[in-house]
Amino acid sequence: MKLSGKNVGFAFTGSFCMYQKVIAELKNLVAEGANVIPIFSFNSQTTDSRFGKAQDFIEEIHGITSNEPILTIDGAEPLGPKNKLDILIIAPCTGNTLSKLNNGITDTPVLMAAKGHLRNNKPLVLAFATNDALGANFKTIGSLFNTKNMYFVPFGQDDFINKPSSLVAHMDLIIETLEGALDHTQLQPVIRSPF
Predict the structure, then answer these.
(1) 50: exposed, middle or buried (C-beta count within 10 Å: 0-12, 13-18, 19+)?
(2) pLDDT in tens, 44-101
(3) To which H or E segment does residue 35 belong?
(4) Rounded to whole angstroms, what are the CA distances from 30 to 13, 24, 86?
(5) pLDDT digit string (tens) for 111-143?
(6) How far apart are CA 183 and CA 195, in angstroms?
(7) Within a 10 A sphere around the Cβ of 158, how many other Cβ atoms?
(8) Which residue, among 152, 106, 145, 102, has the nearest Cα to 126 in the 3D structure?
């Protein structure tokens, strides 16, 4: 019940294959009484994939949260100065977003929201899903682990035979991770068994 009445930013990037798992946890978050503000990267709001149409996802999430989604950098910018969020999660968080976040790049609504939120010294939770986690993104993940107010949904290898560099967050641990992060605690163990 720690999330009841909290203003939770819920930011979507690519990794469309994870959307159904993430949406299930979003529904649980709303059921807990959180006020969820959805935020979409440009790719997540414009890319149709074999997992569904972008506009359908936006409409579904709007219906679940009853809040208008943030779709522009201008729309995301006030979140920081107005101190609107108690906590922010990026789920799923792509390797592209991880890298840009680590390098201070704010060229999407999600990254602008994250920048402003971190400025307020509040927790940012990452639930990543990237095929390059143990490859090109490995250094980035290590750097973010050493960044103040950064927390991670525990993760594991999703297909170590066919995709040995891939890591995916255990999306069913989103709420537990958010609750811990509000207390400035990283949910442990952060590295879990393969899926």
Answers:
(1) exposed
(2) 999 888 888 989 999 999 999 999 999 999 999 999 999 999 999 999 999 999 999 9
(3) strand 35-40
(4) 20, 10, 15
(5) 999 999 999 999 999 999 999 999 999 999 999
(6) 28
(7) 19
(8) 152
Residues 6+ apart with CB under 8 A from 167: 128, 129, 130, 133, 134, 155, 156, 157, 158
Are 186 and 151 in contact, with CB atoms under 8 Å apart?
yes
Question: Which helix H or strand E contains 43, and what residues bound it?
Answer: helix 42-46
Token pair of 166 as six digits: 């891939």
Tell me the C-alpha distance between 102 and 108, whole Å.
Answer: 14
Please name the residue that has the structure tokens 């207390």: 183
> Which two tokens mark 137?
């993104």
> What's the DSSP call for residue 191?
B
Three-state DSSP class for residue 1: coil
User: Which one, of 24, 51, 22, 53, lies nearest residue 39 by Cα?
Assistant: 22
pLDDT at residue 3 in the model: 97
Question: In terms of DSSP H, where are the helices of 103-166?
Answer: 109-119, 138-145
